[in-house]
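Replying to the earlier thread about multi-chain prediction with a worked example.

Input:
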Amino acid sequence: MPNCLSCHASYLENKLIIGLGNTLLDFSSDQSINLQFLNKLILSRHDSSSLAYKDFKIYKQALEVIAPLSKTNTQGVNPADKYALILASHRNNESLEWQSKASVDIDKSVIPTDVPAWWLLKKKNAMFYTGVGRGDFSRLMMASSLLSLNDSSDAHQIDSEFANMYAFIMSIDPPKYSKTIDQTAAKNGKIIFEKNCQQCHGTYGNNPTYPNLLIPLETIKTDPELIKANFSNSSMVDWYNKSWFARPPFASQLVVQKGYIAPPLDGIWATAPYLHNGSVPTLEDLLNSSQRPPIWKRNFNIEEYDARKVGWKYHTPASKTDTQTYDTSQKGYGNQGHYFGDGLSLSQRSDLIEYLKSL
Ligand code: HEC
Ligand code: HEC
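Result:
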């Protein structure tokens, strides 16, 4: 079954980087198609009454329900929030046992997200793009185990493991920019950053500061669908806040607010594409909204990194004809908002990007 690192680790410049969101995964097809094959394979090695098969069956029954409901339109984006919603709706929130009938209505649409870098978590006081995850972070992370645990007695058993995993995640640092940085340009860029960006994204270098702001949708103006969907679903929030995961001594809650966290920008050079839905392929496009491609396609087979614009090289097909093309006119895939770089001149913008490489 998929573990944390299938989504939370990836390769860049031929190096495996733990904590880097995996933007190569393809959730655009039904993820349950291999289940029948897996089922046969496991039964060929293990008895149907074996512990191994019992464990597999939990995952199988969950994926059969989840997979058809969580197909994305495009390769690279992630449906994990939808997984969470479906898993919650099929589990009793006290015993965590699987129930075949969903207790919550599940909306058909799948709102895509990027996968946030793990090394940012140590600065944050709330988890997830919308800041909905509050309280004990280990417990919130553990909710992803609903895919495979049997019931709350399993959950008790892995509770202490999650404190260790949390400690591990807290220890991860961002990868350093590997090519040369123009120091003069970066110095100018720092001044531009202090004037235009620091109030939301914090300061870097020695004694860094981070304001932990959730920016209201009316200010940030990025795609609103993630806020509307998934975790903002009130029955999901109720399910969680009265569940096993909300219980002391490691209580966690979901608290819904209408905005997006202004994330720390450590290692930002490595985490393209940008915004919570991965709708903008490069930093230069993010900082100049008129230049953002409405329809774009990157190479998923060979790493084509654009060191000047900082992000993925891409083509701009006239329309979306395959699952590797990102169409920003689709629901949840919008690339609007975050207009804070628009007023900069060309040279100011390139100095700012040079500075961002150093974070
Ligand atoms: C199917 C892909 C997938 C798997 C598997 C997965 N995650 Fe995630 N994870 C995501 C996505 C996508 C988000 C962002 C969701 C959001 O913010 O709306 C996320 C968010 C997080 C965050 C919050 C980061 C932040 O800065 O807010 C943490 C921590 C995390 N995951 C830890 C884990 C751990 C630990 C596991 C394994 C037990 C795990 N994840 C398994 C996709 C995944
Ligand atoms: C008013 C607060 C605010 C200001 C000012 C601001 N940002 Fe942001 N920034 C945000 C928020 C909120 C997000 C997340 C939006 C989303 O994902 O929908 C964000 C996202 C980003 C991202 C993408 C992060 C990622 O991992 O995808 C980058 C890069 C960024 N900002 C850089 C800048 C720079 C450079 C400036 C200055 C020119 C700036 N921001 C000014 C609030 C702000």
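The mean pLDDT is 93.

Feel free to reuse this layout for your own posts.
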